[in-house]
Structure formats: C-alpha cells, structure tokens
Amino acid sequence: MAGYHHIKDEHAEKSLFRSRAMFAFFLILLALVLLALRFTYLQVWKHGSFQAQADKNRIRVQVVAPSRGMIYDRNGVLLAENKPAYRLEITAERLARPKASGKRISRQAALEITLAELEKLIVITPTQRHRFLRKIQQVKAFRPVSLRLSLSEQEVSRVAVNRHRLPGVEITPYLTRYYPGGEAMTHLTGYVGRIDEGDLKQLDQDNYLDNTHIGKTGVENYREALLHGQSGFQKIETNAQGRVLRVLEKKDPEAGQDLILTIDSRLQLAAWEALGDYSGSVVAIDPNNGDVLAMVSKPSFDANLFVNGITQSDYSRILNAPDRPLFNRALKGGYEPGSTFKPFVALAGLEGGMVNVDTRIFSSGEYYLPKVSRPYGDWKKGGHGWVTVRAALTQSVNTYFYELGYKLGIDAMHDYIQMFGFGQKTGIDLYGEGVGILPSRAWKRGHFDQPWYPGETVIAAIGQGYNVATPLQLASATATLAMNGKRFTPRLLLGLKKYGHKSTDWLPASEATLVPVVDPKNWAAVRAGMEDVVNSATGTARKISIGATYRIAGKSGTAQMFKLAKDQKYDAETIDPRLRNNALFVAWAPAEAPKIVVAIIIEHSLGGGSSTAAPIARILLDQWLLTADQVEAASSESLAQRVPVE
Q1: Which of the two residues, 134 and 392, has the higher pLDDT score?
Q2: Looking at the predicted structure, is the pLDDT value of residue 552 above 70?
Q3: Active site residues
Q4: At 549, is the secondary structure helix, strand, or coil?
Q5: Would you tell me which of 3, 99, 390, 576 could form a disulfide with 529, CB atoms 3.0–4.6 Å apart?
Q6: CATH 3.40.710.10 fits domain 265-301+329-494+521-635
Q7: How many other C-beta atoms can be found within 10 angstroms of the C-beta atom of residue 448?
C-alpha cells in the first residue's frame, strides 16, 4: 500500500533491551563472582604455595658447614689442623644463558662457556673438570658445586676482577685440612679427601650438604662422626641480582670435637728417624693401660697431597713405589715373629707342665725328630750345651724350643698363645687391622685341606713357618707378658674436647682381661730370661745395655725370607736385598716396673734383631724414660755395635 509505514513496537523493544541488559548483567556478575572466587583461591588457599615460590626468588637457605675438629697428641702438639683457603664454586641455575636463534641456550652449553672462560684465568685439570661435571649432574641446580680447591691468591684475584662476566661463579672461603707432622704421622692420623660416590651412599647427606671432604684413612676415618660436627644453616634475603641483603634466620653449626690422642709426637718422630733408610715398623705401648705411644710405618707419604686432590703424577709415583708407602705396616703388615715368639712358647710349655724352670735340654747345634734323618739347625754352630728355659731365652737357643714345641704339639701351643692376642685383631680404634696367623691343625685343614706334620710344629715353635704377626700384635702381646698376664686393648683416643670448652673429657682405659697364671715362678723365669737377653754377658742384645740407667727386658729375633740349601751360607752383603732377613726386637723398661713396651720390625736388614732392631729400642726407651739432658748424654754412647746374629 502506497504511503504505508511500519509502526515501532516500543513495548517489545523495551522488553528485548531489558532481557539483553539482564543477560549482560548476569554475565558480568558471573564474571565478578568467578573473579572473586579465583582471587580468594589464589590469595587464601594458595597463599602459602605462592609465598614459598616468592621466597625462593628472594630468600635462599645456605647450609653452613661445621669446622672440623682438630687432632692433638697427648702433650697438645697439633697433628691435624684447619687452615684458611679459598675454593671456586659454580651454581648451575645462576649461569648466564643468552639467546641464540631466538631461544635461550641450554644450561649445559652455558656451563661449557663458563668453564672455557675460567680456563683462561686459572688452571683446571682434566680430572678436576671431569669430577665437577659428574658432580653437578647429581645435585640440584641451586646447589653450588666446587670446581677448584685451594686457589692461590693470584688466582683469587684474577677471578674476582672478572667476576662481573661470570654469573654463577663464586669464590668461597673455607678451612682446609693440614697435617704438620709430615710423613711420620700419616699412617696414624690418616687424611681427609673429597667426598666421592661411595661416600655419599654411606653418609647422612643432610649433614654433609656444604661439605666437600670426609676422613678417608686412619684416625680421620675412624673418628669421622666426632670430628665432623653438625651442619648449621642461614636464611638470607637477596635482590634480583643475587646479592645478599640480610640474614633472616640463622642456626650456627656445631664444630667437630677436638681429639687428644695417646701418641707422643716426640717418641713418634724419634722412631721414624731411628729407622733411617730401612722399611719397617715401630710400635710403642704403655702396658699399664694400652695407650699407644708411637705407631710408625715406614716408608710413608705426605698426607697433605691427598687433601685437595692429588695429581695423577704424584699418585702414580706413590702407588707404584716398590717399597709400598701406602701400606700401613704397623697395623696390617704380616711378618714371621721369629725368636720374639719364643717367650710365649716358653710360657706355654711351663704353664702346660711340659717342662719346669729347672728342666735342662741339651743343644748340640742340631735337632732330630724321631725317625727323621734331616736335622733342624741352631743358629750357633756346635750348639749351646745344657740349657734351662732362662738360658734358652737369653741365648735364643733354637734346639730347646724345637724340643719344647714337639712336646707341646701345635694345638696346645695355639690354644695357650692365642690368649696373648696372636691370630686375632687387638681391637685398636682403627679400621683395617690385620689378623695375622696363629696356626693349628684345624687352621691348616681349613685353609689347605692338608694334615699337620711334626716338622711344622718345631718350626712354629721358633716363630717361623705359618706364624704371622703384625707389629701391633707383637707389642700388645709383649705388654701382656710384661704385666704378668694383664692385657689391655690398645687405644689411640685419650680424650675429647668440645669447641669453646676449656676442659677435656679424658677417657678411661679398657677393662683388662687376664691370661691365667698357673705358677708365678714360670712367668718370673721367662721375664728373667728376657732381662738376661740385654743384661747378661751371654745375652744376644747385651750391647744396648751400655750406659743404661734403667734395666731393660727384651727379646731379639731374625726371620728368614727364604730357605737356605743344606750347604748354603747366608751372606747379607752379597745376597739380593729383597731376600735379606727381617730383624725384630721386643722390649720393655724398666724391667721391674714396666712403663713402656716397644716392638720393632726392620725389613730386609743387613744385620739381625740384636744388631739392627735392638739399638732402635734403646733410643725409644731413653726418649720415654729419661730427661732431655739424659737422652743427649745417652745418645753419645755407641749403640750400633754388632754382636753375633742369632
């Protein structure tokens, strides 16, 4: 229709508008409600989580390693101390990671770049690099890992000047272990070394988070729990660049305890020097309580080389040395005790009723087993004639002990002598002690599935054959003899001192065990024979009594390294040095009231126990029993005179 116009329905439009407005309102309201719920969720329920994440960005927890306890000798002389040093550490998560091709480079690539820059400033050996790369893969990215220890002042300066180009790299002060006693103390104190994968499996890792070192050998290893202490921590606030703004919370670490050892460093050094160029061992014990006064193994090495990572060349030199400086002879060395074993065989025979103190046996220079044509020779051609047990010990008469051993039998000999500690660990507070061998029928059957023969018994009676003892066992057994059967466990730890405390907690000696005494006269006869070894005109070690102001009891020994042919004569001057006899000597003094016992073993000696090992015993006894002036006067006496070798 012309002129027709659509008339608006205002009511309908208003209704549609209201509907749309309401719908928009509810959408906005819903959005606000959701926003409020989300806000509440984030601000209330998730507050703790986000707070923790925020704190991680600005708050770091630093573990504070405790200072390691120090080690002293019985007179307060430092044997192991801590010296200030610097180490270089890298924290993986703080490394610079610039973009390449629009993406940030990997953390591994950033690490390689940083190492390359550091190698321009300091020396990094392949071993150090390999160890670092392996370790940094094993720890969390925010944990610092040591790359180099004991930086020199020049190296510290070079890194510090370039610090702005090396994010994630820190120079950290710390205390490093140092052993002022040198080689003479190494086998005793042991040393600390860098923690390796094997250590990590056994450690309380929470207590070693900021530690790089742990005791590896000796006292350092055995007393790790006391020396290490307890780690502390501090919460620090940092800015975006990682700089420390303030310390929010702190718990101080507990320093490790200081150890006071039974060792006398003067005596230790005297023993070391007295051995001279010989390989061997010296052990000195206080028989009244088991305190180890000296414990030397020679040759040795400088423990300081191992503390911060020994070089391959140094390690190869020590490892491949023919005289085995890494081997602790005093603790682990196994030697035929030779004639130093005879006093214990004598006691076994006397206490077992095989002989008495007046029984005489004839020594013609040769001994024959029943129905055996092969003789067992004495060291003195033609023999010693009729001898009692006292004279047999004084002159070290092999024939007497052949006969006594045969009468006893190997099992009776074994059962009695084991009470002195042969064939078993002494129980000293060190790891790795040798056991030695005290043979018996059962022992041979168990090891070789073979029967025991009478000829092996007579050889065992003079301390050879299958017999093996450590220097520590010899010293401990001799101390038991000196104390008439009272036996103490050898010990090295004398006292403990906590950091900041003036007082020392002195530790009591172990409870003594007793070797049964059947007849005191038997023990007196053996002790008298050992006194005569040094003080009688016929004693094998009589020369060391010259000028002595106290009375010494002792026993020499010489152990063959190979069996001589029937007509072969031993000549130490011309024989291969590796085949020379071992020289031994055990002693105590004063004879009537023992204060010190010594056991000495010299490998491949030019002389016997009386001429080579016994003079060393005299030096140590003087050192312990005399004043400094008296020692100097005694040293002017000739202690190196030779007597016939048994």
Answers
A1: 392
A2: yes
A3: 339
A4: coil
A5: 390
A6: yes
A7: 10
